[in-house]
Structure formats: structure tokens, C-alpha cells
């Protein structure tokens, strides 16, 4: 194998590893973004349920001694 062929092979391997690295980081980024969105939706639903519970009226009566 000549030096030029070795350089070409090295460039191809380097390019392939860069593309693989970029794809992995893109997939991880999309995964973390999806997790963040799901967690925020869950948190919003929990806050709405808490607000609904807080809005309930409580009626108390006092019994007077006769």
C-alpha cells in the first residue's frame, strides 16, 4: 500500500468517525429534549391538579353551646 492510499484510507476513517460522532450527539440531544418536554408537561399537569385542589371551598360551621 502506498503512502497516498494510506492517507486516503485515514481520511475516510476519520470522516466516518466524525459522522458517527455527530449522529450520536444529535440522537442524544433529541433524546434529552424529548425527556425535557415530557417532564415539563407532567409538571404542568401536576400544578393544574394542585391548583384545582386549592380552589375548593371549605365551609366550616361552629356549634354554639346553649
Largest sheet: none
Number of helices: 1
Shape field = rod-shaped
Helix amount: over 70%
Series of H and E elements: H
Q: Name the beta content range.
A: under 5%
The tally of strands reads 0
Low-confidence stretches are none
Report how far apart the termini are: 110 Å
Radius of gyration using CA atoms only: 31 Å
Mean pLDDT: 87
Structural class: mainly alpha
Transmembrane segments: 23-42
Keywords: Membrane, Transmembrane, Transmembrane helix
Region (Disordered): 45-66
Walk me through what this model shows.
The model has no long low-confidence stretch (mean pLDDT 87). It is built from one helix and no strands. The relative contact order is 0.05. By secondary structure, the protein is mostly helical. Helix content is 79%, strand content 0%.
Amino acid at each position: 500500500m502506498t503512502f497516498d492510499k494510506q492517507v486516503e484510507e485515514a481520511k475516510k476513517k476519520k470522516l466516518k468517525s466524525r459522522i458517527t460522532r455527530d449522529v450520536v450527539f444529535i440522537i442524544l440531544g433529541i433524546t434529552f429534549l424529548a425527556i425535557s418536554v415530557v417532564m415539563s408537561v407532567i409538571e404542568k399537569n401536576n400544578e393544574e391538579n394542585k391548583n384545582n385542589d386549592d380552589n375548593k371551598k371549605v365551609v366550616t360551621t361552629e356549634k354554639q353551646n346553649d
